[in-house]
Amino acid sequence: MTEKKRMVVCASHSPGMERDTDHVFGAEFRAGLADARAQVAEFDPDFVVLFGGDHRRAFRHIVPTFAVALSAALLPEGGHAEGTLDIPADIANDLADHLLDSDFDISVCRDVSLDHAFAQPLRDLAGDPNAYPVIPVPINCATGPLPSAARVLSFGEAVGRFLDTCDARVLVIGTGGLSHSPPSLELDAYDISDEERRRVIADGAAAARKKIKPQWDKAFLGALAEWDTAELTALTDDARAQAGVGAHEVRTWLAAGAAGGGTPLDTLVYQPVEEWITGMGVAVSR
User: How far apart are the two ends of the chain, measured CA to CA in Å?
Assistant: First the structure.
């Protein structure tokens, strides 16, 4: 039997989940995450490629469409201390070179500070941000103009061709989405203080709870299960109008699925959690 060399996991993230320290909400979603985490542990990757968005924290003034981080820290958030990621710099450099050769004008970033878009999936799916070496691959999902879904799929395929050359077990993660509309991203401001960000989020939280779109979420998850790229493209390019500004983050799911070889991703769990203002889902490769 051929050893499985690549595993794809896509999962929603939400700061609200970490603030819910008593685990009052989202029990179904947490159970699905636990299932995914067990599958990751069984797969035991040699390293991780993590496609994540940015909430205008790392990239405020210069916003790369696609980037590869060669060194990175995690911002202190949600009761978690600042940390440094274990990035295999040689592999990350080779990935960047490969993407340039594939006609992607990739940005590389060093000593960048990443937020929960990267930290949370590593904690949720690996148990610890440094459980495995990880290559963070930021995709612009927050500050227009955004890459088209077709371009994101092509980008993911290019990453996949690089992984084909690696003699390693690789976990590919896409994180963000599904439907949600965070007040801080609805505000079209590129450089606000953390204090102002907290105020905007608090003032808009009640309205944001009602902006989850389960029908859109289920349509997107259904298209993933068939790896229907035409439907995924249509849903992603119209995400803001149909599912809120935060739904742009499903671009990371497209990139991860494409990097995994375009195999269908089956839904482990879907739960709209109003208290976390997000349609929460987990999907894994077969």
Answer: 16
